[in-house]
Amino acid sequence: MACMKLGAKSEAFHREGQTWLCTTGLPSDVIIQVGEMSFHLHKFPLLSKSGLLERLIEECSGEEGSACSLQLHGIPGGAKAFELVTKFCYGVKIELTALNVVILRCAAEYLQMSEDYEQGNLIAQAEVFLSEVFSNWRDSIVALETCEEVQRYPEDLHIASRCIDSLAMKACADPKLFSWPIVGGNDDMKNPTATVLWNGIVSDDAKPQPPSDDWWYEDASLLSLSLYKRLIQAVESKGMRPESIAASLIFYARQYLPLMNRQSSFNDTNYVNSGTTISNISEADQRALLEEIVGLLPHQKGVTSSKFLLRLLRTAMILHASPSCRENLEKRVGAQLDQAVLVDLLIPNMGYSVETLYDIDCIQRILDHFISINQASLASTSPCIIAEGQLMSGTDPLTPITTVANLVDGYLSEVAPDVNLKLPKFQALAAVIPEYARPLDDGIYHAIDVFLKAHPWLTDSEREQLCRLMNCQKLSLEASTHAAQNERLPLRVIVQVLFFEQLRLRTSISGWFFVDNLENSQNPSANLGLPTKNDVSGQVEPAHDRAVGVDHHDMRERVLELQKECSNMKMELQKLVKTKRSWSILPKRLGFRKKWEPCSPKESKPSDRMAPAPAPCCNGQQNHENS
């Protein structure tokens, strides 16, 4: 830390209780009261340096020969500052440091210790040292912290603004363009691990390395909220990257908001001020700090991580922040919801009337905002012309909405076990996602299954209404197999699943036989058992032809497996239909033969084709004739 020594005399004062006495041997002729401290001094050293003391002593109405008594309760810095000023007036050695220079500069201004009374007076000396302080990063931080001790004087003298400006310039400077460390001071250049070679050259490992962009975060977090806010505004005006500003705000928030460092859990709802914060600030002060942090966050999308924004939102709910603050955070999260992760969306319900375990209404608002700001891009893109490969590669406008669809399906699966979750609220959240945003409906099917398991009292109509949220045609093979055996689903939905699965199997089998017949027609010699051209000439069959033969063998095995699966599914359907007589006419409508024979495209007749399927009960389904 930089310092400057003023004066040449040794100590000339001693303290007795609440009184400072001069040891020069001359009786004091002026007594100055500062707070609870009394200073017994002499008029001449004070008159020659301070315009205020000169005027006050002249106005003193004390009798001749009696000591003049003055009161200076308004001096910046109080008795501690006046003690240093008194020593300066008597020529006693004092040491200017970053801790006392601001206080002394304000006290000198208050006492009018300018050059009009003496060359090299205290105001000039303090200004010279302040210039040295502003060139040093850590000294500037220390000096800026002391500005709050003397209230308005640093603002009137522009000390705080000059200090903040110097800090902002250093924070925005590129350390690679200057000799590091830019904080100044010889102590910063020392490296305890330095290795000096025999010829005096310092090895490369011992040389100080340029710091990362976050080198100033910790020092800035030592400032009070008001000063830190001004520093952030200063670095923003000087063109600092929004990412660096957001990172500094995150660091500052984690220093003073203990809830930001806790995991998402219901234990957070039991939070009481326990004195675990660094500064032990009250809940009201934490709420004010959080609202200021939210206001300082950069508005650019993606600059602040969704994880931090959601933690801020959860903390704002616990601290009962203002509605505008929570709305601001919800909109920020909604703008980049596709970057969030499921665990951060599980925000415990902090309302006074807790209906559900998690705050589903908050997620509903966030999701609505995401859909609203993405409507323009989604409306200009036709989902019908998006190729599947392009969708999975993440190069089209549907990728964010697809990511959010998977996120919402996972969220629904997490909140579905809550027995207090009502069906309309579950449906409302799931219905926000458009049907084309889900390449597969396995996620929403899993959420529906969990909800049905946790709510066994739902009526059949409510179950069917719930199952309309999914498209049975978009279930994977694994999901279809599970749904066909799921007793919690309505029978109508199970029939739909079996129908579309059979339709899918028949289409696959027809495709395999079509490819097989096409290749056989292109190679008639293989069907007649004649040797090929390669066999006559004695040449070895190419590896490609052998691979094709192997593929044909695997193809036939797959066809047999599909036929077996089709037969098994028909048998399962037959068992389900027998359980309910009202569905006795179902096999005729689905086009099954009277006897349950294995499906075989080669033996099928035109008259045996299936009649139109029953009216679909799931979104996006179509009948057999349209397919």
Summarize the structure.
By secondary structure, the chain is mainly alpha-helical.
User: Which secondary-structure class do the elements indicate?
Assistant: mainly alpha
Mean pLDDT comes to 76
Task: Note the main sheet.
Answer: 5 strands, mixed
Q: Summarize the amount of helix as a percent range.
A: 40-55%
The termini sit apart by 82 Å
CA radius of gyration: 41 Å
**What's the total number of strands?**
7
How would the global form be characterised? elongated
Q: Total helix count?
A: 27
Order of strands, main sheet, comes to 2-3-5-4-6
Task: Assess the beta-strand content as a share of residues.
Answer: under 5%
Name the poorly predicted regions.
183-204, 265-277, 384-395, 525-550, 580-627
Give descriptors for this structure:
five-stranded mixed sheet; ubl conjugation pathway; NPH3_dom; 627 residues; 7 strands; mainly alpha; SKP1/BTB/POZ_sf; 27 helices; Phototropic-responsive NPH3 family protein; two-stranded antiparallel ribbon; elongated; coiled coil
